[in-house]
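Lab manual, section 2.4: Encoding a predicted structure.

Procedure: take the sequence of the chain (224 residues), apply the prediction step described in section 2.3, and record the output as structure tokens. A sample record is shown.
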Amino acid sequence: MPDNRGHLLPVYILADESISMRPYTGELNAGLISLHETLRSEPMVAAKVRLSVLGFSDNVVVRMALADLRSEASLPQLEIRGGTSYRAAFQDLLHRIPQDVTTLKQAGYQVHRPAVFFLSDGQPTDSKWRTQHRQLTDKATNGVAPNVIAFGVGEVEPKTILQVATQQDFAFVSIPGVNIGAAIARFFLALTASVVQSGRSLNSANPQLVVERPEGFHMAIDVI
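Recorded output:
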């Protein structure tokens, strides 16, 4: 049994790469660059986090498998393609997360419940995604069920984002009329702050997942 090497928080960015996101490719990739630069400037935080970047469309493409950002020279770019299959996204995580957690534990780490930051600008193009989502997030049957923090911009409906998030206070939608590119940029600012604060909390007596609401977003439960 390897010695305990400390605590880790696995974080997954699950980003919509469907065709409707094409106008915002620049904001998506700029956000990843900013996240990377911030975490590289906070090595004590980066040491507590392992990050994966997944793009979903008709299927999931692994832009970056779970990694220690201190050893990554740059983050990958997201690429626009296809539809918006929520089913593919959650099916991928259903298999990926247990494998990643097992690998980290075998390396001697204590692993906290993974966090998935989900971003989409539209309704799913498949109707049968809830089964995979339920299997992924049911803590009674999945011991490594992640916390899912869901962010919606553009045409996505608040009720859909509420269904994706694992708690009502983990579901956010951009305010109507807000520029989508600006909303995506603010999403990444909030994501970065959430990861940094959550990583810092792992050194405390009461580790917790910290979730920041982006400027220009409502909680989805508040939208009527």
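Check your result against the sample. Helices lie at 25-40, 43-46, 86-106, 130-137, 158-164, 180-201.
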